[in-house]
Amino acid sequence: NYAALIQQQINEDKQNLREKTVYGIQLTEEKLNDFRDEQIGQLKELMDEATKPNKKITISKDSEHKT
Questions:
Q1: CA atoms in the 13 A half-sphere facing the CB of 36
Q2: Contact, 25 vs 5, CB < 8 A?
């Protein structure tokens, strides 16, 4: 179960306090070749979103609607 694997890796990371943890499993070239082009595109989009620098969103009172 993939969710259980991720949970186990998160728990191990908390215990070991590693600097950089890699979650999930490595996909072999053979497995990647079995993916459809659409799936590869989705993985790329997911990777792009997951590796974006953290952006803080601030909401000021000036942005509230005034009547």
A1: 3
A2: yes
- Where helices occur in 1-67 by DSSP H, the ranges are 2-16, 29-33, 37-50
Cα(54)–Cα(47) distance, rounded to whole angstroms? 14
3-state helix, strand, coil in the chain (%, to 5): 55, 0, 45
Q: Which residue is associated with the tokens 């694997």?
A: 5
User: How crowded is residue 43: how many other Cβ atoms within 10 Å of its Cβ?
Assistant: 13
- For residue range 20-40, list pLDDT tens digits in order: 777 888 888 898 889 999 998
* Residues 50, 56: Cα–Cα separation, whole Å: 15
Q: Measured between alpha carbons, how far is 9 from 23 in angstroms, rounded to an integer? A: 6
